[in-house]
Write a structure and sequence with these properties.
By secondary structure, this protein is α/β, with parallel strands linked by helices. It has one domain (about 1-185): ATPase, nucleotide binding domain (Nucleotidyltransferase, domain 5, 2-Layer Sandwich), CATH 3.30.420.40. Helices cover about 30% and strands about 30% of the residues. The chain has helices at about 40-50, 70-85, 95-100, 135-140, 145, 165-170, 190-195; strands spanning about 1-5, 10-20, 20-30, 60-65, 90-95, 105-110, 115-125, 125-135, 150-155, 170. The longest helix has 18 residues, at about 70-85. It is globular. The protein starts with a strand and ends with a helix.
Length: about 200
Amino acid sequence: MKRLIFDVSTNVMFVGYVIDEMLVDFSIRFAQRDHAKYLVDRIDQVLKRNRQTMDSLDEIIIGVGPGSYTGVRIAVMVGKMLAYAKAVRLKTVSSLFFMTSGYEGKVAAMIDARRGYVFSAVYENGKTLLEEGYRKVTDLSLNPIYQSAQTVFIDDRSYEVNPKRIIDASVLVTNIHDLEPNYMRITEAEANHDQKSSL
């Protein structure tokens, strides 16, 4: 089975081509807020290097968030577009899980959510010990499950990807039109608007 996997929820863009459960080729790009300009091109590059096209794929798996508001929107939009246009099966997985799936043992996966908050979860060899959530760092530090895990703050130096675990954890999207990113919090603009509205 031929699969395309990708995640752009952080400053790390990961695009991989997987045959069965083996990562055959991948592309990584480090950036801040411009993944939108490069994701489709990187997908095209990876497929062309392996003499493949979108029509030859059996499945697409995307990291659906949480993470960068813009990043997860891009991933979902591109995933839906490709799956719909090419009639390819689409699956999703937590971006926290995707980007730390290659670590062994207990791992506390974290993405900066600003102002002392993080998107976080704890995994152990592909199993979820602490569900993903939007948490205050000080509260998380008191959690005994977190305390016993290795902290991995996902960035350009801290990530490990395991295709088999991603495949095993992925969930089939039955209606791609209904798929939405996992934002896990409202945007700053929405929060400011709500605050002004309540005055």
